[in-house]
Amino acid sequence: MLRLSMADECRDRIERFQELLRVRRVDGALIMQKVALYYLSGTDQNAVLWVPASGEPLLMVRKSLERAKQDAAMDQIIPLSNPSHTAEAIRDHSGALPSRLGLEMDILPVKIYQSYVNLFPGVDMVDISPLIRSARMVKSSYEISCIRKAAQIADQMYDQVPQFLEESETEIDLALRAEAFYRRHGHAGLNRMRGFNMESVYGHIMAGANAAAPSASPGPTGGCGPGPYLSQGAGQGKINPHEPILIDYTSNVSGYISDQTRIFSKGELPEKFHHAHQVML
Known about the structure:
By secondary structure, the protein is α/β, with parallel strands linked by helices.
């Protein structure tokens, strides 16, 4: 039943995306970014998805073809032994090469872009990343159900934090317990985001002055992290009484995220922290 549901879900997504391609007069798009690939096909295998403006899409799989056939909610799935065969596969599938080819130029590496320029000589390359974002903006009832379930799991995890704090001496200790809870409830352990050098595992846990440590995080919170390789989030800092403990963690259900931030403490906080919290609210 779930597979049928996902097949219908992906079919609706493909049709919405194809309508956007036709409005922009793009003959078809090649999709590679993992989030968009999963969104449209139902699989995250190493693959390239050809979405013509009209007609059936084609999933060209580098690895693993077996898993792609098992997971993908679509019918047309073929092996792709070498990326140089992409144009040939599209011609065989659609009957002709596109005149205007859509690429995800917001995330596509220059080397791969140049390889497609060579594979499709004379073809007009256009950026269809805004169309992907537009298609994904409106959530279906299935997507909303995933977000709602993620939020419910997050509520359950935060209910456990007082107990986790009794058992934790450091930020890492607390992170281990929170992350174990989420993994037991289906969190993949990875949050994929559409952006260059943007990735997240769970989020940030930081205590006391560490919460004000500057970092490369795009958000307002930083943290010391485990070291220069990952210089944000939970580190080996002690969790002391009467200091704010910030937990900014994501719950993830099938790629759909509930992101919550809460403040805890061991013992009562000084009044200046209550005041600062109220100002923030």
